[in-house]
Amino acid sequence: MSESNGRHAEVAGGGFAGLTVATALAQRGWSVTLHEKGDELRAFGAGIVLWHNSLEVLKAIGAYEPLLPKSMVPPFYETRMHNVTQSKEDFWGLEWRTMTRQDLHETLVDAARNSGVDIRVASEVVSADPAGSVTLASGEVRKADLVIGADGVASKVRDSNHFELERTKSRDGITRLIVPRRKEDLGPGEWDNVIDFWNLEPRVLRVLYVPCNDDELYLALMAPIEDKEGSAVPINYDVWVESHPYLAPVLEEAAKIHGRYDGYQTTVLKQWTKGRIALIGDAGHAMCPALAQGAGTAMSNAYTVAVAATEAANADLPQALVDWEARERQITDECQERSAWFAETRSMAKGNQFTPQMLETARYDPTTREMISVG
Ligand code: FAD
Ligand code: 5PR
């Protein structure tokens, strides 16, 4: 634990954004209380892909090494259209890793606890004051020098302050599940690759196959919202196996789990900060998943806001947050636009879509503000 700097932060939300910012602040001498409204600390959803940007953040907060044995680096991101390989991308060696969300979340909880963050579960933040306080569902008001809204897409820190926002919903959505890998039961194929199986005809049904470790496979099954059968949970095995027969063993596992179908959406705010409040993660910039950067940008902005707040004198903190947003925002805005464009056009199906430009967010190192070049 580091020496106290005499300042206090209140963080709403125990997801990837909240845990990262709380840890980075505590490691810089802040006393930090994190409120999670759920009764326990756990990750929702299934698997996740992290890239150079968020992996550098994990290194900086000491959460990278513990994650190594629980995660993997697939040899290629392979894209198939109607089961014909279109591309096999390795991002020119740019670092990326796959893992389950549960494993990432547990690692971040450990990092937060080891850094001295006071984590409170069953503690809901109902509103926040830009002058520096949060109000809990219990009625308790807690003062802070810095208030972080990391309370997800339905953020109360955000909505209690009437931040201006624009929300766009896409026509597709996805059911995400973790299933046993059953590699030996699948036919010939490079089953350690991430494989993005697109079927556009006779109907749009896509399976994103993401191995997370030796035992666990993340399956994301995408179908248009209007396709009642394709978007049903638990999944309609007959529909999915008809379009992807070569995945029968793992689809059989997927059909045993209830899962949840989520529509894609993008939220763009006019501003991310107000007084002593900063919004990060889905509270501030929820995005479509195509570039796999929702959590990546959340962790990146979590880290940089912690640094910016620490470097500012306490009286100057509101202005320091404005400057932080001005510095960091473009990279997130562009990622939101690109991810929404992929959702709109479904052009990931063509393969070779991870160009150096599309990888810009991934190439950014928030800990040094350097952009590494590839390609
Ligand atoms: P959340 O994960 O939503 O966490 C918010 C937390 O706050 C929750 O624990 C919640 O219970 C708590 N909370 C909510 N309200 C309150 C309150 N009022 N008071 C206290 N606590 C509260 N990103 C990637 O980087 N890579 C991927 O591969 C990837 N795949 C994705 C696939 C899909 C289909 C989707 C929809 C998203 C994907 N993402 C991915 C995005 C990623 O999941 C999110 O961007 C990320 O989880 C956001 O983290 P967060 O901490 O901001 O929010
Ligand atoms: N990449 C990842 C992912 O989980 C999804 C997408 C892309 C890692 C969906 O869940 O394009 O939908 C996508």
From TrEMBL:
Gene Ontology MF term list: FAD binding; monooxygenase activity
InterPro entries according to UniProt: FAD-bd, FAD-dep_Monooxygenase_BioMet, FAD/NAD-bd_sf
A Pfam family reported for this protein in Swiss-Prot or TrEMBL: FAD_binding_3
Signal peptide region: none
Keywords from the named record: Monooxygenase, Oxidoreductase
UniProt-listed Gene3D superfamilies: D-Amino Acid Oxidase, subunit A, domain 2, FAD/NAD(P)-binding domain
FAD-binding domain residues: 11-323
Protein name per its UniProtKB record: NAD(P)/FAD-dependent oxidoreductase
